[in-house]
Structure prediction request, 260 residues.
Amino acid sequence: MTASRSKAASLTPPPDESQITIRHLSGAEEINECVALESEIWHFSDADLVPGQIFVVAERTGGQVIGAFDRSRPVGFVLAFAAIRDRRFYLHSHMAAVLPAYQNRGIGRRLKLAQRDDALARSIDLIEWSFDPLQLKNAHFNIVRLGATVREYVPNLYGRTSSPLHSGIATDRLVAQWWIRHPRVAAILAGKPPKPAQSAQPISVPLNIRELVEGDPEAAKKAQSEIRMQFQQFFSRSLEVSGFDMDEREGRYLLEPYKH
Prediction:
C-alpha cells in the first residue's frame, strides 16, 4: 500500500537515485523511523499504527525489516513476518511503503528485490502479501513487474480502518503469491514476461474506481461487491490471476488454470 501523490509532493525536487540505499534495519531508533513513515503515508490513528515493538519482533524472529534511505533520510520500508503453512516456511510481507515524493522511481521494486535476495539466501521459496484489488497501479506492479500470482480473495481482511486511503469501505484484499525461484518469475524480472493465454478470463476494474470510492462510497461498495463475486467464482474453479493489463478505461486481471 502506498499513498497517492499530493500537490506539495509533486513540487518536491526529484530524488537522486544514485543516493538511494537499501539495507536491513535493526535497533529501536531505526525501527521507530519506520513507524513515523507509516504514520505519514497512511495517516492512521494511533490505534491502527503497527508499533515499533512489532517491527523489532519481526526482525528478531526470522522476518524482515528493510529500509530505503536518501542519504541518511528514511524514505521507505518493507516489513515481513516469518510464517508457516502446510509445513512450508514462507514470508508474509505485511507492509511496503514509499513516501509519495519518492514513488514511481523504482524504490518499491528495489525493496521487494531485497526481500527476495534475503529469502533466497535463507532457502525460502515463497513471499506472500495482500493488496487492494481496486488499487490498479499496485496490481500492475505486483503481477506484471514482479510476477506474483493470485489465488485467494479475502473480504474485509482488516475491517474498517482509520486511514483515509481506505475511504471507509471494506478492506477486501487479494493475496499475492511470489514464488521467487520459479522460472516464470525469473523471466519477468529479466524483462521477458510470458504472454497470457488468449483464453484467459478477465475481471475488469474501472480506471476511475478510486475517484468513485472517494466521491460516491455507496456506488463504490456496489462495484466492490461485484468484483468480489467474480474473483470468488473464478477462484472456486481453480483459476489464478497470472496476468494484468490496462488501457485508458480499465484494468483487467487475467485468470488462467493453475500452472503449479
User: Anything to note?
Assistant: The longest helix spans residues 217-236.
